[in-house]
């Protein structure tokens, strides 16, 4: 399946709920619940939201996060590799 940009309505979703979710995540970033959030909402092959909130690294002068920021996996790769090996 190939993904494409579209509206929430095209994907059978509510624009109001998507907007509310984006504002909630933006508030989390502003309140430092976490340093960075990248969200992608897609349904039926339609991307209805792809946003980045927060900073790319810790610190006062940190660059803003972009949708294409690459995160180091560090120790998270171990359970992913173990799961793949068991399949």
Short description:
30% of the residues lie in helices and 22% in strands.
3D architecture notes:
This protein has 87 residues and is of the alpha+beta class. The protein has one domain. Helix content is 30%, strand content 22%. It has a three-stranded mixed sheet with strand order 1-3-2, with helices on one face. The longest helix has 16 residues. It is flat and about 40 Å long.
Mean pLDDT: 90
| Sheet with most strands: strand arrangement | 1-3-2
Order of helices and strands: EHEEH
Distance between the termini: 23 Å
Principal-axes shape call: flat
- Figure out the total of helices: 2
Task: Chart the SSEs and their pairings.
Elements: E1 4-5, H1 15-30, E2 36-43, E3 46-54, H2 77-86
Parallel strand pairs: 1-3
Antiparallel strand pairs: 2-3
Give the key terms.
87 residues, alpha+beta, 2 helices, 30% helix, 22% strand
């Amino acid at each position: 399946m190939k993904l494409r940009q579209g509206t929430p309505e095209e994907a059978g979703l509510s624009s109001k709920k998507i907007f509310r979710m984006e504002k909630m995540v933006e508030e989390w970033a502003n309140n430092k619940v976490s340093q960075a959030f990248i969200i992608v909402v897609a349904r039926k092959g339609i991307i209805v939201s792809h946003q980045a909130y927060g900073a790319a690294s810790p610190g006062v002068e940190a660059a803003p996060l972009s949708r294409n920021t690459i995160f180091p996996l560090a120790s998270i790769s171990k359970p992913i590799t173990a799961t793949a090996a068991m399949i």
